[in-house]
């Protein structure tokens, strides 16, 4: 989904953003800490995960062109319920929540863009819950591959894909072997 923003509005946002390099393995959002910034992924790959009883659970992945942040912190000024970690060396543009809120309140284009972006986020959430949280492990993995580029999928460590798809790494390994033998399994659109 796309909503055009004028050059002047883009320039207004760019003046407020700073470029930050993020090393692989570094978290830009930490679970339990109130976030104060949002990030536009210019280059790199990130994962969002929660830690429960010492075990990490991957919730989503983000790549070039995505905005990431703690929605708990942005919308309610609450501590983040998950961490966002760089899976590769990355470059992000950083915008403070304060500046983002000011843009949304004073610039109609950014207010509309934000609404469209949030609607798109709800679509992605529903798509993920429909295609990646139900069905057997083979179906979930095949849908994951169908919904990602091979370039992105190949950069994600298998243990994080397994966590994301709610399966063990050995199960994922068996499924990947099966798919390698029958590549047609991952052809086409995701299946609910």
How would you characterize the overall build of this protein?
This protein has 192 residues and is an alpha+beta fold. The chain folds into two domains: 7-107, Jelly Rolls; 132-185, no CATH class. Helices cover 45% and strands 22% of the residues. The protein has helices spanning 7-16, 71-76, 97-106, 108-131, 137-146, 150-155, 158-164, 169-181; strands at 18-22, 27-29, 37-43, 46-52, 55-62, 67-68, 83-86, 90-96. The strands form two sheets. Strands 1-8-3-6 form a four-stranded antiparallel β-sheet. Strand 4 and strand 5 form a beta hairpin. Helix 3 (97-106) packs across helix 4, helix 5 crosses helix 8 and helix 7 (158-164) packs across helix 8. The radius of gyration is 18 Å and the shape is globular. The mean pLDDT is 93.
What is this structure's SSE topology?
Blueprint (H helix, E strand, L loop, with lengths): L6 H10 L1 E5 L4 E3 L7 E7 L2 E7 L2 E8 L4 E2 L2 H6 L6 E4 L3 E7 H10 L1 H24 L5 H10 L3 H6 L2 H7 L4 H13 L11
Antiparallel strand pairs: 1-8, 2-7, 3-6, 3-8, 4-5, 4-7
Catalogue the unreliable spans: none
Radius of gyration: 18 Å
Q: Helix and strand succession?
A: HEEEEEEHEEHHHHHH
Largest sheet: 4 strands, antiparallel
Under the CATH scheme, the architecture of the largest domain is Sandwich
Task: Supply the CATH superfamily name of the largest domain.
Answer: Jelly Rolls
Number of domains: 2
N-to-C span: 22 Å
* Helix/strand class: alpha+beta
Overall morphology: globular
Query: What percent of residues are in strands?
Result: 15-25%
Q: Tell me the total number of β-strands.
A: 8
**Which sequence of strands runs across the widest sheet?**
1-8-3-6
For this structure, the CATH topology of the largest domain is Jelly Rolls
């Amino acid at each position: 989904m796309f909503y055009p923003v004028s050059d002047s509005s883009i320039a207004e946002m760019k003046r407020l953003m700073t470029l930050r390099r993020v090393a692989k393995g570094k978290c830009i959002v930490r679970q339990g800490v109130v976030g104060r910034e949002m990030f536009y992924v210019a280059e790199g790959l990130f994962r969002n995960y929660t830690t429960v009883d010492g075990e990490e659970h991957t919730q989503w992945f983000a790549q070039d062109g995505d905005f990431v942040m703690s929605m708990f912190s942005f919308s309610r000024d609450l501590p983040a319920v998950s961490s966002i970690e760089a899976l590769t060396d990355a470059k992000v543009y950083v915008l403070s929540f304060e500046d983002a809120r000011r843009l949304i309140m004073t610039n109609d284009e950014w207010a509309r863009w934000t609404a469209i972006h949030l609607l798109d986020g709800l679509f992605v959430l529903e798509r993920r819950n429909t295609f990646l949280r139900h069905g057997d492990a083979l179906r979930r993995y095949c849908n994951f591959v169908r919904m990602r580029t091979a370039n992105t999928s190949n950069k994600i460590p298998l243990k994080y894909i397994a966590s994301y798809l709610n399966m063990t790494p050995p199960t994922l390994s068996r499924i990947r072997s099966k798919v390698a033998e029958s590549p047609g399994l991952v052809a086409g659109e995701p299946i609910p």
